[in-house]
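## retry 2 of 3
previous attempt timed out at serialization; input unchanged, resubmitting
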Amino acid sequence: MNPTIKFDRATTPDMERKGRRCNCWEYTHALAASTNTENRRSAMKRPTTLFATLLVTLLSLSLSFTLTSISTARAASIFASLPNGYAFAGNVEVPGGSTSAGSGPVAPAWLGCTLASRSVSNTVAAMSLGSYGNAGNTQTSVTNQQTATSGTIQTLATLQNVNILSGLITATKIRAGVSSTATSAGATSSILDATFTGLNVAGHAISASPGPNTTIHIANLGDVVLNEQGRGPSNGPVSTYAGINMIDLHVTNANTLGLPIGTHILIATVNSSEQLTPEPAIVGGQAYALNTTGNSNSGPGSGSTSSGPVAAAIIGCAGGTTQTNIASTSQTNIGNTGQVNDTASGQITSSGTTATSQANVMNMNLLKGLIQGSQVVAKAQAKWNGTGSGSASTTLTNVMVAGVPVANYPAPNTRIPILGLGYVILNEQSSNVSSSAASESVNGIHIYVTQSNAFGFSVGAQIIIGHADARVTSFS
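## retry succeeded, writing output
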């Protein structure tokens, strides 16, 4: 017997077309600065807000400029805006602690943080979400077009023969498309496509494509939102965003399908955004306290593991400022540190573009006192103002390596051998500067394990204490 369904009267297709209530999905259109991006790598855990939040936040991190500054910026051969677009065919999120596993995103396509005119696409002959569902031929794509007077990004997804939860929701075809455009007059987005063909929900055929944010309650399971658009495209003088989830299923009740309460299924998600900037440029940078790779830290035979970056501060391509402060760090068989203060910032202005990052690590005691000291400060800066330039530095206070004090301001890439372990490089720097870009990277202390050792590290393991990098690129 098919589960019964109930249309939410406030969100049926007819009433949606008349402009009634539309509150089923709230995306975050962040025009204010983000103050902490440490969770950037774990953002995939929440796909409902991930793609709206991540893309728009990356573009809108503390851009302090006015339309006047944009209009008076020097003429460029390419329009100054930052596009972002993301699409995927399907994704399943399960609640923490569940014995079930999630799935996806399947067939992802992303394009952003570039002013180049180009396209990316992903095509799969058959989409599989395991026991949650499947589809036939699936295509996702993102296309960016940048000219001297405008920037436009378009995101599309098409799925054939969709089958979710063993026929609970089916469709012969689903299409979704959004587009965002930036010009000197402002930024606007639009819905290009949001159509279902042959849609059937719990045995009930739906002949017309549902209006925005149509909610259907499925008894003894939960709710599904079709053509989920939140409040619709968001337009403004310097930024714009649009996004669609064609199917958004939330499991809220105990059920015979064995799905844990809190399971969340997304099908055919697309979004796009544009952010005007004073100059056609992008920035990037990060700082962190500690990072380890290839460390067998659970004893012989446990295999290599990696951890970190710890206390990372990261900026997106539009710039802004982030800061991460923690009281202390501790890692098995590596050691501990005291207070950590990591910062990263970037600014795009009509007079130039700058990115700066700094890691500040206090009171470290590593490898059972083999490396210890009061403070490690690593700083990197990259600039563009007609041409690229950059700098990097490391300051060490009361640092000792194998009981020997080292200089407060070591020369770049100072190498010190460590008997029975490998070697350490102090103030490890790399740089790449050209007429259109600059990038700088520095590791305050970088340990390389090249020998069998008493610490349990695998040969090839690396430990970085105090990292900073910064980069800028101009498309003028």
